[in-house]
Structures are given as C-alpha cells and as structure tokens.
C-alpha cells in the first residue's frame, strides 16, 4: 500500500459516521447490509449516508452490489488487512517483541471467530 492510499483510507475513517458504518459492516460480514438499513441503524438520513458510503467506497473500504432495488454494502476485509499490515510493517523488522502484543490481539480475533 502506498502512503497516499493509506492516507485516503485513514482519512475516510476519521469521520465518526463513516467509522461507525465501516464497523457495522464488519459486524455483518459476509452478507453485508442494504444502504437503507445502514442509515436506519446509525440514525442518519439516507442521502447523508449515501455520501458517506461513497467516500468509504472511493477509499476502497467498502464494496457494493445491486440486489433487486437495493444496494448491498460490505466491508472490504482484504483492504482492512492491507491497512493493518501497512501500520505494522516496519514494527516487526528487527523488533518482533514490539509487535507481539498487536499480533496477540489480532490472533484473539481469530479465536473469537472460531468459537462462533
């Protein structure tokens, strides 16, 4: 990931509604949610939510597909992985002990997934 792509992605998440929308979509993986349902759950007007989803989409954080009359949004989990790797890339080079707490917290996510 290039620095400019990372900046765009992190900037997209630096707004409260967009961050909430992205986290909501992560919770609803892999099926995703219709745009209207995202707006409803976050108590945001539909047109405002549409603008926020557009920013997230342009940053590569969400993907969408048309299903009948609805647009279903999903979190782009592979992009999230690339962002996390971008953040910790230099951390482990020569200093794996510094990154161990981060790696442990991420591995605890996979154990939670395996439990459900």
UniProtKB/TrEMBL annotation:
Work out whether the entry's keyword set contains Transcription: yes
Enumerate the Gene3D superfamilies for this protein.
Winged helix-like DNA-binding domain superfamily/Winged helix DNA-binding domain
Native species: Vreelandella boliviensis LC1
Question: Would you tell me the protein name for this molecule?
Answer: ArsR family transcriptional regulator
Keywords, ordered alphabetically:
DNA-binding, Transcription, Transcription regulation
Report the SMART domains cross-referenced here. Answer: HTH_ARSR
Which PROSITE patterns does its entry note?
HTH_ARSR_2
Matching SUPFAM superfamilies, A to Z?
A: Winged helix' DNA-binding domain
